[in-house]
Amino acid sequence: VETTAAVFNDKEVGEEQGGGTETPEDPKAIFQESFKDGQGQFTIDTKVKPAGSTNEHIWHHNQHTTGNTMRASAFINGKNEPSEDWLVSPEIDLANVKAPKLVFSHAINHDKTNARTQVMTLQVKEVSKEWAKVEIPTYPDGQSWNHVVATVDLAAYAGKKVQFAFVYKSTTDAAPVW
User: What span, in angstroms and rounded, lies between the C-alpha atoms of 72 and 106?
Assistant: First the structure.
């Protein structure tokens, strides 16, 4: 099985949903990004910049004791601020892939309202088409830096050129860290 992978914890991960076992780089992966030295080939599209933010984007490279990651949070100056920021992959050609999957590791903290499935989402699109929300099957507990692995089935995009985006939205009620 060919896989498409994005990595948030400086390493490629390859277990099915909820696995957590880290594996070395997958030579069969079509695309991999470690975020070791920054945002890599990803771009950031800020739709709503929060009030009081001095940063250009909510998504930013983060050097952390658990590894280098991309991180998003709109908790600014002691309060939750409304925002919307997209971390967008480059085009990925799935022309010769029969069962594509996106595998990534993610952690969420400070989710006091249990809003993670609404404010931290995944969008996928065929190049030159509209974005479509795709379910993330595995979310972290929202109260720690414990990473979990999510495996997203992209079979609907087999044979196509695609992009995916990690979408962070926050409100005055919820601005967890992803």
Answer: 11
Output the six-digit token pair for 149. Answer: 């692995």
CB 35 within 8 A of CB 61: yes
* Cα 51 to Cα 9, 36, 64, 174, distances in angstroms: 29, 29, 26, 15
Task: For 119-136, write each residue's pLDDT tens digit.
Answer: 899 999 999 999 999 999
- Say how far apart CA 30 and CA 91 lie, in whole Å: 11
**Cα–Cα distance measured from residue 156 to residue 109, given in angstroms and rounded to the nearest whole number:** 31
pLDDT for the residue 177: 92
Calpha distance 29→7 (Å, rounded): 12
Who contacts 65 (Cβ-Cβ below 8 Å, separation ≥6)? none
Selection from 169, 176, 171, 17 nearest residue 105 by Cα: 17
Q: What's the CA gap between 114 and 121, in Å, rounded?
A: 14
3-state secondary structure (DSSP) of residue 119: helix
The 10s digit of each residue's pLDDT in 158-178 is: 999 999 999 999 999 989 999
